[in-house]
Amino acid sequence: MAQPGSLMQGESGDPRLHAEERQVLDAIEQSREKDVLASREKELPANEKHLDGTIKPQQRLIHDPDVSFAEYYHYSQQTRAEEETHPSVGKTGVLGILFPSKSGPGAGHSSDEDVNVHVTGDLQTRAVITDDEWAQASRALRTATQGTAFYLITTDILGPFGLPYAIATVGWGPGVALYTVFAALAGYSGYLLWDIFLGLDSYQFPVRSFGDIGYRIYGKYMRYGLSILQGLQLLLNVGLIVMSNGGALSQASKEKLCYIICCLVWALVGYFSGQVRTLQKFGWLANAAVWINILCMLVSMIGAGKYGPSYGSVDSSAGYNIDPALITAVNGTFPAVQTSGGIPPSPGGFVGAVGGAMNAVFSYGGSMVFPEFMAEMKKPKDFLWAMWAAQAFIYIVYMFYGLFLYGYQGQYVVNPSYLGIASYGISTAGNVLAMLSAAIAAALYGNIGLKVLYNNVFVEILNFPPLTSTSGKMIWIGFIPVYWSIAFIVGAAIPNFSALTQVVAAFCILQFTYTFPPVLHIGYKIKQAALADQASFDPATGAAPEKFRLKDYVRYFFSQTWYLNVFHVLYFLGALALAGLGAYAAIETYKAGFADGVTTSFTCTSPFGSSS
Predict the structure, then answer these.
(1) pTM of the model as a whole
(2) Is 56 a member of any domain?
(3) Which residue from 121, 333, 430, 541 has the fewest beta carbons nearer than 10 Å?
């Protein structure tokens, strides 16, 4: 699953471009909104309008209810046409994706003047900004290339290390089939988001998040829902990382340190790392995370091939959820490693298989931040091939890793997989690498997650001060321990790692990757069909048809690409059904774990067991 955040200012910089500028832009939105709405109660001064009387885009709210879909679409087509005239950014094609240029057009930083044009909240200042200056400021914030997007999507933490467990619960054949289907559909969902983005984003009205897309198609409540769910997913991800790092530290200490204390250690690390409000401070560490993960995968494969599974971790193994007899020692001897071509026959086979599918979904959780990636590309049209290449890389590399671990460890595979190696030395090496990579990810997840919740809930709904103000910065300092404490409580109270990953996958990841893209695309195509049937946006008057009734939605649903809309309804319903099954499987796994006494809240004994 790709790490959330912004892109880099060229491949040689931080992969979270303009985090500070974007933070300021979000923060001033609320004060600007009040000023603009007040000004609309009376006739706008002449200098705040075009000569023809229409309101300038730079005088609009970021989430402006008076901007029609037609206006968004009109300016997006202008922007796409201009982007086609831009020279290529660095190398293109496969080589450009795998070996991105460190220079070239778009690789530099934007100037302070460009940034200030977009973040100033004073209406009098903004009133004298010309249309060209406003568009140029937006262009300056877009510098990333195909290679940037490729490496960010493949920067993962939890996806590869849960796949061996997923395959163990469903067997060789279904595992390969499910993972292939998930990969193909994830690539298709990425295409849908790309298609929508190109039709809604522009220099005048830039799309900056998943919530922005939802807002422009279905309104403010969709944006609220998407933002809250995104924040929830990031919080649960932090909780999962606290759990996995707590287990890794416990193993490295040969369980001399209490598991709950190990988790608390990582929560305390978050208290300090979370005080960094701008993601630019993480720089090269974030770039290194993908290579650390690959190295951890190699170490895990070497350990699994040479030393076999750790029998001290059997209570967290796939075999325990399939059939406890598969991992129960008889006369002190554990059963041999077993694999299955199909779904292993067991009392809880269905629940285990669905749970395994949810763990596989984790590999394709990057869709949540695809709009943010595209928002900072000089040519968003180039995102499609980078995304497909990244999904293919994830499919091939993760699949090989998952099948390799399952072949050598069978029913003894645990989640995360690096915690199930018998050799203490190999296990410790893998644990150290995993802890380092996960610590980077946790800091990033926590940073983005808290900003999403703070800006979209506390600032917008509860009128908290923006993060750029002195009081906002003080509140941020106080919120960080609260946020990480909640993550710690999640990990300590529900230490069943695989069940929690199922919850995150079913309620959050699966929605952003498979449920929301088709339903958003349906709304997008309906409104696009309305533009083809009615008068389009007229920049001279600002007039455009926008009011939709139920019969209008039905009529445009069955116009033009009706067959695609029907397919997307089926796709949406199928994803929703799978999410329901995943939630059911997670609940059943929790119930079984607590009933058997294997899952114990706030336990001192590591649920991942010992590596020796």
Answers:
(1) 0.82
(2) no
(3) 333
